[in-house]
Design goal:
The chain is α+β, with helices and mostly antiparallel strands. The chain has one domain (about 5-175). Helix content is about 45%, strand content about 10%. The protein is built from nine helices and five strands. The chain has a five-stranded antiparallel sheet with strand order 2-1-5-4-3, covered by helices on one side. Strand 4 (about 200) and strand 5 form a beta hairpin. The longest helix has 20 residues, at about 40-60. The two termini are about 25 Å apart.
Length: about 210
């Protein structure tokens, strides 16, 4: 899933669908929580698809498996029983720090910290609650299927692809790397750890690796 670049391709498909929607409702018209005013069945469907990929990403991640085996009895507690509240354990166990990682919306310069809740007492991020509410009862919770939650969840999926150790070197192949020094890049076999001045950019977001 990760080494092959499959997870990155899935992200691109989802982001392209969001971009198609933004051709009609430009993101820079609705800053901050004003994005919550924009909700529709199409956005709700996008939220469910994106949230599902965030969930799958964590479940396939080696460090999640390591923490799960360390903290829980696999005979009594199945991996499929885990949810976002348990995924926080990867930060508590110092496997990776996600709570301070920022994603910038390129067109508005807004900053999103998708997993800020990892360092606090809150069990779930707001976009995750919205994803589950819409997935299980979309009509009753239709206002949660909004542009704000779609952008927050897509930023979370983008960040996961940026930091996973097995997807990082696939990012350049899929056009996500913005090189500030092209001459130096051409002299090197690209390696994220050896090249510290890289920005990872998608059609919507930018992540500063430093």
């Amino acid at each position: 899933m990760f080494e092959s670049g499959y997870s990155i391709r899935l992200y691109q498909i989802l982001e392209n669908d969001v971009v198609d929607f933004l051709n009609y409702i430009p993101i820079d018209y609705y800053l901050g929580e004003k994005k919550k005013q924009i909700f529709s069945p199409k956005i709700a469907e996008l939220l469910v698809r994106i949230g599902s990929q965030v969930d799958i990403f964590f479940r396939y991640w080696d460090i999640v498996h390591e923490v799960y085996i360390k903290k829980y009895n696999p005979k009594k507690f199945k991996l499929n029983d885990l949810d976002m509240g348990y995924f926080k354990d990867i930060e508590r166990e110092n496997k990776i720090i996600l709570s301070n990682k920022e994603i910038k919306i390129i067109s508005t310069d807004e900053i999103i910290i998708p997993f800020e809740f990892f360092s606090g007492d809150r069990r779930y991020p707001l976009f995750w609650n919205a994803y589950n509410h819409v997935k299980h009862n979309g009509f009753t919770n239709k206002k949660e299927g909004n542009l704000f939650n779609v952008i927050e969840s897509l930023a979370a999926l983008f960040l996961l692809n940026c930091v996973h150790e097995k997807t990082q070197n696939k990012l350049a192949e899929h056009g996500f790397i913005s090189i500030r020094n092209r001459e130096l890049f051409e002299q090197l076999d690209f390696d994220m750890k050896r090249y510290p001045y890289s920005y990872i950019t998608s059609k919507i977001f930018e992540f500063n690796k430093n």
